[in-house]
């Protein structure tokens, strides 16, 4: 069933983790002049109006992106945000339409396109016809960006490896049936890693019960990559299957120093996003390379 609409959740605490990590990864790619490719397997519609009926109904962004931005816009505690978060938030403030406050929240495709250079490229897959149509419209004039209305897992076979030979695959599915989605991701990654073992893969995952996530994380530990980092942010304890308690990003072939890059941002987000009790975060290598890598960027 295709019931999921990201408009209800845009800018929530999970998006904040997902997109700040995405920003950090794109920054790492930009450390080298050679172009990179982004492949977004579940792209959504690209941009979300926070005053829409959908966003207004849940108001999830108020406990997410708004918590990070409002101290910022009011110039309170401005110096306290780590530079990575500041720079990421600046791109959201600078979005046309946000001149008079937070009206729009850019999804992963728009955030990526804002951070990409003229020579970088993006392949966006989105199965839902309306979301795909909105993506097409949004990127109509952007020749770097290609929209595919098709199954993102299936499309990886055709899209990998990208001609740029360096780049990032973002896997951000709806998890309408959680266990099934984990198995779909594993199958897709197995094929993808065969076709393109050196690509960077960033997979967003929901955290309800910790035990529901463990098999997937164990699979990642055995999938054959040399480095894999997990970055998690929880606003509730991970002991209830009834709500989204937190989320994580698993990054395969992560830049060797990504843990250092994300440490302070995660600390700051945990501070700003805490709910009934302190938010918690986790930054661990699921797979750690012991030798010093020759190259410092992917
Ligand atoms: N990545 C987006 C972002 O960060 O802004 C949000 C994506 S949202 C969590 C998941 C999207 O996947 C939905 O728009 C849904 O329509 C789409 N979708 C569901 N199944 C899909 C599939 N098999 N292939 C591609 N897209 C799919």
From TrEMBL:
EC number(s): the record gives 2.1.1.266
GO MF terms on file? Answer: methyltransferase activity
The reaction(s) annotated as catalysed by this protein in its Swiss-Prot or TrEMBL entry are: adenosine(2030) in 23S rRNA + S-adenosyl-L-methionine = N(6)-methyladenosine(2030) in 23S rRNA + S-adenosyl-L-homocysteine + H(+)
Q: What keywords are assigned to this protein?
A: Methyltransferase, RNA-binding, rRNA processing, S-adenosyl-L-methionine, Transferase
Residues annotated as binding S-adenosyl-L-methionine are 19, 42, 108, 126, 151-152, 172
> Active site: which residues?
172
Give the EC class as a word.
transferase
Q: Where is this site: Interaction with substrate rRNA?
A: 4
Q: Please list the GO biological process terms of this entry.
A: methylation
Per the record's keyword annotation, is Aminoacyl-tRNA synthetase included, yes or no?
no
Q: Which residues form a coiled coil?
A: none
In UniProt terms, what function does this protein have?
Specifically methylates the adenine in position 2030 of 23S rRNA.
What the record says about family reads:
Belongs to the RlmJ family.
Assembly: Monomer.
Q: What is this protein called?
A: Ribosomal RNA large subunit methyltransferase J
């Amino acid at each position: 069933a295709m019931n999921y609409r990201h408009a209800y959740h845009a800018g929530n605490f999970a998006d904040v983790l997902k997109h700040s990590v995405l920003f950090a990864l794109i920054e790492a790619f930009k450390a080298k002049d050679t172009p990179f490719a982004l492949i977004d397997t579940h792209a959504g519609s690209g941009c979300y109006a926070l005053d829409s009926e959908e966003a207004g109904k849940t108001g999830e962004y108020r406990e997410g992106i708004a918590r990070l931005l409002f101290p910022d816009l009011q110039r309170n505690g401005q110096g306290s945000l780590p530079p990575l978060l500041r720079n990421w938030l600046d791109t959201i403030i600078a979005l046309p339409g946000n001149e008079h406050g937070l009206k729009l929240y850019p999804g992963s495709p728009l955030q990526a396109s804002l951070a990409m250079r003229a020579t970088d490229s993006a392949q966006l897959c989105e199965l839902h016809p309306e979301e795909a149509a909105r993506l097409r419209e949004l990127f109509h004039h952007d020749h770097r960006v290609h929209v595919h209305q098709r199954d993102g897992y299936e499309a990886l076979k055709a899209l990998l490896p990208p001609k740029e030979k360096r780049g990032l695959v973002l896997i951000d599915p709806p998890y309408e049936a959680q266990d099934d989605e984990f198995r779909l991701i594993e199958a897709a990654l197995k094929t993808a890693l065969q076709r393109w073992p050196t690509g960077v893969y960033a997979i967003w995952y929901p955290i309800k019960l910790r035990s529901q996530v463990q098999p997937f994380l164990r699979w990642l530990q055995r999938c054959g990559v040399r480095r894999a980092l997990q970055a998690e942010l929880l606003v509730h304890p991970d002991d209830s299957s009834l709500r989204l308690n937190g989320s994580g990003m698993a990054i395969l072939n992560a830049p060797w120093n990504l843990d250092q890059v994300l440490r302070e941002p995660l600390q700051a987000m945990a501070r700003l996003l805490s709910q009934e009790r302190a938010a918690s975060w986790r930054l661990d290598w699921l797979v750690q390379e012991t030798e010093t890598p020759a190259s410092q960027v992917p």
